Amino acid sequence: METFANIPQIILHGAASFASVGTEKSKGTKVFALGGNIKNTGLVEIPMGTTLREIIEDIGGGIPNGRKFKAAQTGGPSGGCIPERLIDTPIDYDNLTAIGCMMGSGGLIVMDDSNCMVDIARFFLDFTVDESCGKCAPCRIGTKRLLEMLDKIVEGKAEPGCLEKLEELAYYVKENSLCGLGQTAPNPVLATMKFFREEYEAHVNDKKCPAGVCKSLLNYYIDPKRCIGCTLCAKVCPVGAITGAPKTPHVIDSSKCIKCGACVDACKKVKAVSKV
Length: 276
What we know:
Strand content: 5-15%
Strand order of the largest sheet: 2-1-5-3-4
Order of helices and strands: HHEEHEEHEHHHHHHHEHEEHE
CATH class of the largest domain: Alpha Beta
Distance between the termini: 48 Å
Number of strands: 9
CATH topology of the largest domain: Ubiquitin-like (UB roll)
Helix content: 40-55%
Structural class: alpha+beta
CATH architecture of the largest domain: Roll
Shape: globular
């Protein structure tokens, strides 16, 4: 539809007018669905060659709540991601392809430092697993195995050496699938591994999620210096994992804790409960 929408403008104003906007190889404008952790969301139309920084800061209004930009995912569920260090990349077909991304369906999802890139890759791969038609084994079976491996990583059950196997399988699926869905399905995995491998290594080697997103890798802790003994956290805990007398510091029994986060929400004013 976006292509059809450009045709009347070319007929009315001529090819030279259309080609005067954009870059040498990517002419005209591009419509993006701008979303995620950004102040101004919605459909935006930008000249080809506009930098990611201009889109995020000038059009999107920047990252809300004082958080830091981390990455932008382009091209829909099968797209790649652009890290903060490449924020000045001009957005056109060639530049996105060069860094392992793609224009795709025109999705542009902005992520800040509260996002876990391993979890993001798992989220998008989960979508493509459901969308696979099942005709070829690399896509039908390979994407499921990739998702299983990512599930183990975010659950803290991955073993040393799994990242090499994950990467090898991702390239196999990409190179041997019959259609574009299977060929691009591993892109979120490969892109996040390329730019945020340290996050994968933290999940596997240290059993920690640096962004504090993956629940299985979190532990909740009550700071005795901040706790005022209001008992709110103990009252909302669904499994009775928090103990302590009124007006005295409380304690969380990690063996009982189901990591639901109810205690953190209950302690928003005092902020004595934290995820570690």
